Amino acid sequence: MISVNPHFAEKLKKFGAKTSYDCFGCGTCTAVCPLTSDENQFPRRFIRYIQLGMEDKIKHSLEPWLCYYCGDCQKNCPRQANPGELMMALRRYLTSVYDWTGLSRRLYTSMAWKIVSVALLFFGTLAVVYGFSGEMVTDRVELETFAPAHIVHPVGYVFGAVLAFLLLSNVYRMYRFVLGPYAGAIPLPVYLQELGTLIVHFATQARMRLCTDKSRWLKHFLLMSGYFVAFMLVNIDIVTRWSLTNEPPMWWHPGKLLWSYASIAMLYATTDAIIGRLRKKDPIHQYSHSTDWMFLILLWCTVFTGLLMRIFMELGLPLPTYHTFALHLAFTVPLLGLEVPFTKWSHLAYRPFALYFLRLKERALELQRPEGTAVGVQGAQG
Amino acid sequence: MDKKLAVYICTGCGIGEALDVEALAKVATGEYKVPVCRTHPFLCGAEGVAMIKQDMEAEGVNALVIAACSMRVNYDVFNFEGAVVERVNLREQGIWSHPANDEDTQMLAEDSLRMGIVKARHMALPEPFQVEDLSRTVLVVGGGLAGLTAALDAARAGYKTVLVEKSEVLGGWVSRLYRQVGVNPPYSELEETDIARRVKEVEENPLITVYKGAQIEKISGAPGMFEATINHGGTQVTERVGAIVLATGAVAYDATKLAHLGFGQYANVITGEMLEEMAAKGSITRPSDGGPVNSVAFILCAGSRDKEHLPYCSTICCTESLKQALYIKEKNPEAKVYIFYKDMRAAGNYEFLYQRVQKEGVLFFRGEVVSIEEDEGKNLFVEFDDVLVGEKIRTEAVDLVVLATGMVPTTAIGERMTIKAETDEKGAQAEAPAEEIIRSNILNLEYRQGPEVPTLKYGFADSHFICFPYETRRTGIYAAGSVRAPMDIPTTIVDATGAALKAIQCIELTAKGSAVHPRVWDLSYPEFFMQRCTQCKRCTVECPFGAINEDEKANPLPNPTRCRRCGTCMGACPERIISFKNYSVPMIGDMVKAIEVPEEEEEKPRIVVFACENDAYPALDMAGLNRLTLSPWIRVIPVRCLGSLNLIWIADALSKGIDGILLLGCKHGEDYQCHFIKGSELASYRLSKISETLNRLALESDRVRMEQVSIMDYDRIPKIIEDFASRLEEIGPNPYKGF
Lengths: 382, 739
Hints:
The complex is a heterodimer of chains A (382) and B (739).
Chain A: E1 2-3, H1 8-13, H2 28-32, H3 44-52, H4 55-59, H5 63-66, H6 72-76, H7 83-98, H8 103-109, H9 111-132, H10 143-146, H11 149-179, H12 188-193, H13 195-204, H14 215-240, H15 254-279, H16 283-286, H17 290-315, H18 318-342, H19 347-368
Chain B: E1 5-10, H1 15-18, H2 21-31, E2 36-40, H3 46-58, E3 63-68, E4 84-89, H4 91-95, H5 103-122, E5 138-141, H6 145-156, E6 161-164, H7 172-175, E7 180-181, E8 190-191, H8 195-204, E9 208-211, E10 214-220, E11 226-232, E12 235-241, E13 243-246, E14 250-252, E15 269-271, H9 272-281, E16 295-302, H10 317-331, E17 336-341, H11 350-359, E18 363-374, E19 380-386, E20 391-394, E21 400-405, E22 407-409, E23 415-418, E24 436-439, E25 477-479, H12 489-512, E26 527-528, H13 538-542, E27 548-550, E28 556-558, H14 568-572, E29 578-579, H15 585-594, E30 607-612, H16 616-625, E31 634-639, H17 647-656, E32 660-665, H18 679-688, H19 691-696, E33 704-708, H20 717-731
């Protein structure tokens, strides 16, 4: 027996679910959704869960992650109940549920927490950079002298390790929530066999291509690949030393070329998203949670300062280079520190993991079921 | 009436090209010796009409047979005062549905003309029935929203009105509402009802006489001359009225029958009516302890759409509950309100209300209530099977459960009685399946067929006429408001206006001596040749409108102004003593006899089609309009209603050598479409008795077939006839041919 909890919808409003009571349950959203399936039905079912306050059901569900928010449901909803946005709000809520530190919930629900944490990390980074920086050579650009690699790199790896730990521990909690009852039924080899799903969806977001609007996948892929390339380039910098160095290589250096691609791709995609959210023309851009803006602004500033720094460097302007580099780091730290484990950017892990877990769940069910009654979910098998 | 016949054959619309008009004219001038017979290429044009008028003046013709298009078109053009007009359908059912220049088509046209001439010979000009001392007063029964509105509208139209209300105050159900659903934009606000204004206007109107605390003891008479005896505080008043509006409304379903929803068992389970009362008094509290109400569950369809209780939907409970949810939310926005429904019916502007209530945070649940429980603190818990979640759910403790009960029409409350006809010595038993009347003690009619108006299956005083709302099965009595069908406030207001206008129309048509709907042009009425009456009671029992009373010796006492001129009595009478000036048993019999039946070896069978004028005949016309080909063997005879079918016609046809008889009438049974309610049903009943007659004639009963058609079935008509024709072919020709 499920008890109705009318207070839950109120709670979810802070995560952006403002229209859940407008739904009268017609199911048009589910009918038009290209991603929903018999076994994994959304959005209507989940709107109903919100209305009735069925927290447990939501907490143990993967479906919110199977939605890529194309907005088809929103366009067709006869009650303007914004099913897509409600699914988005559920993802925000789930992110806060997975996070054991409690910081995620505070970032999502409190403006003060957002501003203070961003400011703290921003100014803290600036303080650290200027406090530990080396000499500012003014007759030529010597970035490494300003920011010694032997300090920057280790600090960066420690930071990365902390973030990875936070994110993966949250993913583990997600695993416990959604696969808890099945975990025992899945043999270890299955976990390995299905790893492909995780990798493919992490790298390509292929499922998004099932959405009606195909252009979104391309934009998202630009952003994602740009980020991924930049991330890899920064990580291998310690070996190749193409970036944080006093002797930057020539323009044709593969690192520099790839980096240019990454910057431009990310800048294009973020600018496009910002313009979209300001214009509010498409359903997916009509409703922006404060954390959406926080993410976009931090990302845009990070990419922009990085690009600016490169330009100053190429032009041989030492001081502007050093200062924009400091700014670049000051934006990067809150971006990664707050977004990756706690808020919007965490979906880079939750989405592919959701599909991976879904495959595991299907395999578990197949193992329990008699032969020949296979279940499947569109795109989940990569 | 001294009649001089004239036949006019129109050759327009292709008739002249498709038929041998000269041969056709010879039928009139040769066989029937019609003194005047003319053809015209455009008879419905000014010149053609002028020609007819010229003949009427110069030749003195006064019985006109117009052989042209269907009687359903140009009836205004071929309308000549002082003359009997008969239309022969050469176009729609002639050349449009049969091949041109064909021997069989020509024979069909000639037979049609023969039947037309014979019919015109039988017809006389109707003399309208005149009521002595006709009353133009409208009696309105019921002083609620519908009754008040009907009275006001009748008075505004200049008609004296008598309003009878059972209780001591006017206003009815609506006056007990705290607020009504907004009828003005944005349609989502609560509004005060305007019932007080209506009551005031009624009480101040000099044309309206109001009897409060009054009851109708009896109503005798007929439209234009009803005598209503009203018991008014112990004294009897008699009012002569012309027509009656029945507006006694509905009451809420008895919630004590809803024990499964906790009513009567738990103090905090109440009905919507009780909530209105609390809201009107200014405070909504828990009946158990008078404590505040912070959470409410509304159970919609409480006892509605439920075979055990009310099987139907009362249409307003959804919106009334939405409105009441706002009573709660407006006083306390934090209150938790749950609405449990089967289907949310918030049509039209009510959608705005529904949306608002959703936005106010009211929670909606679709599915079935499983149980309602109470804890020791008298708090209630609703357990519910939620369709969308697919699981059972349970509410938090709620302070109040409100049952939205449906409407029971006042005409449904009372002892059920069946008016049967006793079988007489000759075994001439009444043929109609007996009709049930509910003794609701509202009108107390002095009618042979029972004291109240017949109702539909759920007790609503309606007549299933999709085209004729307000009309009960008693002429001159018009139902309005929720006594007729469950309805909301705006619909009731419109309904009351409609019924008031119908009452006025009835009075005015009665004053002219004309039938009241659907045959509003008809000035004829049934006349009884009483010397030959055997008091068999068939006519008094079978009249679908209770038009015929009986005296103590069972002689029929016709009330022509109650009559709708369907001719059911004429079809019922075994002695054939009932006839109209322009419609009679011998007339149709002679039309059948006028058909030329070819010799057996010619292999041209003949089928007489008796077609109901309301649906079957237009369907045949539409078949022609759509150029569908019909069997050449048919000869169509329109009848006012299949109820007027007298079995003698079938005997006439079969003894004449006609091979088959097809009856085309309206759908009967529960969802009947018969314009005269029981006509087609009676015809089918009579038909079931005909095998005896056929056996006597040594004929197969398959030679007579009845089919139900609606006006939309025109495309089925060719096949219906073809199927019948092929069955007749199997049986073989009628052995009586040539006798």
